[in-house]
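Support request, priority: normal
Reporter: lab tech (M.K.)
Component: structure prediction queue

Hi team, I submitted a job for histidine kinase from Treponema berlinense yesterday, and the status page still shows it as pending. I've pasted the exact input below so you can check whether something in the sequence is tripping the parser. The sequence length should be 102 residues. Please let me know if I need to resubmit or if it's stuck on your end.
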Amino acid sequence: MSHDIRTPINGIRGMIEIADYYKDNQQKQNECRQKIWETSGYLLELVNEVLDMGKLESGEIVLEEREFDLKAMLDEIISVIERLGASRGIKINIDYSNVHHF
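Reply from support: The job had stalled in the queue. We restarted it manually and it finished. Here are the results:
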């Protein structure tokens, strides 16, 4: 867990240092802002998950069973995975044509 928290924080700090170094380069500034935004979003999700786990363990949250659109959820997940892969030069091919809506 500590690695999962430290890595994004160090990434944010590093991007701030890079942005400071390139203070006269608007393109670099924008790239750094985007990376800071993405990394802080990941960190926020992680903190929310930790807080939710605490609520689950204390009985504050009751899980509810309900229907959902599995294909729509997969589309969102795949979109994120494809963007991450593309940013690293990796093409992701996923076939979920046999998945049915429940």
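Residues 2-61 form one domain. The chain has a mean pLDDT of 87. Let us know if anything else looks off. Ticket resolved.
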